[in-house]
Amino acid sequence: MNSKYDIIIVGGGAAGFFTAITIVEKNPKLKVAILERGQEVLSKVRVSGGGRCNVTHACFVPNDLVKFYPRGEKELRGPFHQFCSGDTVEWFEKHGVELKIEDDGRMFPVSNSSQTIIDCFLSATKKLGIDTLTGQSVQSIFKAETYWKVETNHDTYSCQKLIMTTGSNPKIWELLNEIGHTIVPPVPSLFTFNIKDKRIKDLMGVSALASVKVLDSKLSASGPLLITHWGMSGPGILRLSAWGARELADKKYQFAIQVNWLNDLTLEETEEKLKELKLEHSKKAISKKSPFDFPNRLWESLVLASEILEETKWADLSKKQLQNLAKQLTQGVFQVNGKSTFKEEFVTAGGIDLKEINFKTMESKLHQNLYFAGEILNIDAITGGFNFQNAWTGGFIIAEGI
């Protein structure tokens, strides 16, 4: 059986639903179908943002927004001028979903539930008569002279325009490679660092604002660093993992980092500060209270790592011990052996080479009437709603063009 549609969207995730709804709202006469390989649609939306769905980020200036994308920064500048975070907020409000801004700029539905977003998409597709077909695993795509043919494990479909929103799907990338598209090999992009080190062994849950450098590279980042039972996480580490996705993959996730727990203080400035503290607190035990803006438990651990006994008073601090402590505070080296996925946020760097996409329309430069949106492209961002924003912007531009 050959089912005919004007437009077929392969991928029943956020980008696919948003694109389908936006297209049909602009032209209700179009017959549109979403093909989803699983039995359930929008499963990634359900778990995103800890089950709350981090819809977008409160960064409303396109030229600022692009800076959160390690891959795609240059290409997204134009698209974000067409559809940015503010437009996303407006789109969801128009569809009955109010968003709120949290302290860190992330935006969630006021309900605090990803189900609100899922219900919004499902009710809109039903109302607009968009067919959602599950259990449809695409086996092949074929370009005829005037239409596209899509074969799944159950059926054959034909359409005038084909839109791919399948995210990081190796099988789909393989099919697109067969019709000439270049696929940049995928590597993990958001991950935490596995570190076994006695300095942080019992400090799970401790957080500090720190600067981190990957030794023997140009990679560095600043931000909150969280100590976990497997090593280090937090925005600073995730930023490093995103910008260093390829380089750290090449190192097979075996590398050393240098941590400055005082963020922007240099080694020399720290030595001076410690000398002042030695005079001010001469009779007090060094390890008892952190004189810096980070937790006492971390301070105590770094003091012990500097070969300073627990009961040592500031007055008895030797020059060598003071230098050791300054080094632990600003230039502590930790060995990374492997990585862990950050929560459920499995994001990859890789996908369709951006040179092969027309970013005015999101259409393939190799094949007419073939479009892409979301993480199927070699675009990814740090955590905070930015990957979803890329999906919404791509979907909107496709709808505009069609």
Keywords, separated by commas or semicolons:
elongated; alpha+beta; 7-stranded mixed sheet; 2 domains; FAD/NAD(P)-binding domain; 7-stranded antiparallel sheet; 402 residues; single chain
What's the short story on this structure?
This protein is of the alpha+beta class and 402 residues long. The chain has helices at 14-26, 43-51, 62-65, 73-82, 85-94, 114-128, 170-178, 235-243, 245-250, 267-280, 296-305, 319-331, 386-401; strands at residues 2-10, 32-35, 56-57, 99-101, 106-109, 131-133, 138-143, 148-152, 156-164, 183-188, 191-194, 207-214, 220-227, 231-233, 254-260, 332-337, 339-341, 348-352, 357-358, 363-364, 370-372. Strands 1, 2, 6, 7, 8, 9 and 21 form a seven-stranded mixed β-sheet that branches.
Describe the model.
It is a single chain. α1 (14-26) packs parallel to α6 (114-128). With 402 residues, the chain is α+β, with helices and mostly antiparallel strands. The protein folds into 2 domains: 2-187 and 346-401, FAD/NAD(P)-binding domain (3-Layer(bba) Sandwich), CATH 3.50.50.60; 191-341, no CATH class. Strands 1, 2, 6, 7, 8, 9 and 21 form a 7-stranded mixed β-sheet that branches. Strands 16-15-12-13-14-11-17 form a 7-stranded antiparallel β-sheet. Strands 3-5-4 form a 3-stranded antiparallel β-sheet. The chain is built from 13 helices and 21 strands.
